[in-house]
């Protein structure tokens, strides 16, 4: 009986099996576990004479992933089809690449947390390093310096970068816009030490050589932040649909108000992400701040007078000048690095909250 005859006899089309020639869901996971077990067994046998401390877990995981790719591809070709086998192989390659890229980040976070928790106490966040030469001391002066300098740099760079991107997208045409784009691209790749030298040279010529203060550090960071804000905001403003602009113009709304009320709210979430990327780009800079903001062991909250300590400079200084208690200095350096990571995390959460609050509301919400 043909398909047409079956359809005529029953009145409906025969149900096609969607699972025919397809591996069960548990098969890939089982193959992965078997592959890892084989790889770990091989590496375990190879390291018996050297001890467990010489066991190469990363190498065993990589070999296990290779074994899994071979097994899943061969079995999929036999049980499914060549096309499905290639799909499973590419899925395994992409997943492996993701995990491989994730390993350094996880290792970094684990190392910083494991070494930084030793000095995460009340004294560390309430004391400075004034008159401290051995154990004890804290980073309250470095936290204040990092927050004030980064905040000042953000206040300077974000309006400049955002207005530049608005000009390039909404108004800029011809050689002027091309020149701005070219110089922004050049500024994106300049080394951070060059920004510090530039700001230091300007202030040395205007005021006096050897001057250092927090505002100089903020300007150096602003030089590094501005091109990142420009490029990120420009791309986000360009993807705003032109239909939104045209609808606003059709209602008689002027262009500046369209940008303010339509374009910016539509892309505010992405712009906040761009701002956070620029902050993350500069908050850990050490070289330009050593030249411009200097370093001090006391608390200074006036960015226009005197040197200021920041967290990256504090960590660098503690590592390079360990004093009479090297272990205490190293512990303070790790704790400062962990504090810096936590500050970046808090800023990211704050940026997401701001983007959620100011994002345009849809009718479905």
TrEMBL record:
A Pfam family annotated for this UniProt entry: BPD_transp_1
Gene3D superfamilies: MetI-like
Molecular functions (GO terms): phosphate transmembrane transporter activity
Start and end residues of each ABC transmembrane type-1 domain: 143-351
Transmembrane segments: 26-49, 55-79, 91-113, 142-168, 180-207, 213-230, 333-355
Localisation: Cell membrane
Chain segments annotated as coiled-coil in the UniProt record: none
Leader peptide range in chain numbering: none
Membrane topology, from the record: Multi-pass membrane protein
InterPro entries linked: MetI-like (IPR000515), MetI-like_sf (IPR035906), Phosphate_PstA (IPR005672), Phosphate_transprt_permease (IPR051408)
Role summary: Part of the binding-protein-dependent transport system for phosphate; probably responsible for the translocation of the substrate across the membrane.
Family note: Belongs to the binding-protein-dependent transport system permease family. CysTW subfamily.
Protein name: Phosphate transport system permease protein PstA
Organism: Microbacterium pseudoresistens
């Amino acid at each position: 009986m043909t398909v047409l005859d079956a359809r005529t006899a029953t009145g409906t089309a025969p149900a096609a099996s969607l699972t025919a020639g397809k591996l069960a869901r548990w098969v890939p996971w089982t193959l992965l576990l078997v592959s890892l077990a084989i790889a770990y067994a091989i590496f375990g046998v190879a390291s018996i004479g050297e001890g467990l401390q010489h066991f190469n877990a990363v190498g065993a995981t990589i070999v296990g992933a290779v074994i899994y790719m071979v097994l899943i591809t061969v079995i999929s070709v036999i049980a499914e089809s060549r096309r499905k086998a290639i799909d499973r192989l590419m899925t395994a390659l992409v997943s492996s690449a993701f995990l491989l890229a994730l390993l350094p980040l996880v290792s970094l976070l684990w190392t910083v947390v494991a070494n930084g928790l030793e000095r995460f106490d009340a004294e560390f966040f309430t004391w400075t390093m004034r008159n401290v030469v051995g154990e004890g001391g804290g980073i309250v002066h470095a936290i204040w310096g990092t927050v004030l300098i980064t905040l000042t740099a953000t206040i300077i760079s974000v309006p400049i970068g955002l207005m530049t991107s608005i000009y390039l997208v909404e108004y800029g045409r011809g050689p002027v816009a091309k020149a701005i784009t070219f110089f922004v691209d050049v500024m994106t790749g300049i080394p951070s030490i060059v920004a510090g030298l530039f700001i230091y040279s300007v202030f040395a010529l205007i005021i006096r050589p050897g001057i250092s203060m927090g505002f100089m550090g903020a300007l150096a960071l602003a030089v590094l932040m501005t091109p990142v804000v420009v490029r990120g905001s420009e791309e986000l403003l360009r993807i705003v649909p032109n239909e939104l602009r045209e609808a606003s113009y059709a209602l008689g709304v002027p262009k500046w108000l369209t940008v303010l009320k339509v374009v910016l709210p539509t892309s505010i979430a992405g712009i906040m992400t761009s701002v956070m990327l620029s902050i993350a780009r500069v908050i850990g800079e050490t070289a330009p701040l050593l030249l411009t903001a200097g370093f001090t062991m006391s608390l200074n909250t006036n960015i226009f007078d005197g040197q200021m300590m920041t967290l990256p400079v504090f960590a660098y200084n503690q590592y390079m000048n360990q004093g009479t208690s090297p272990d205490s200095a190293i512990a303070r350096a790790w704790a400062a690095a962990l504090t810096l990571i936590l500050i970046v995390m808090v800023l990211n959460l704050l940026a997401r909250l701001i983007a959620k609050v100011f994002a345009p509301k849809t009718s479905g919400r």
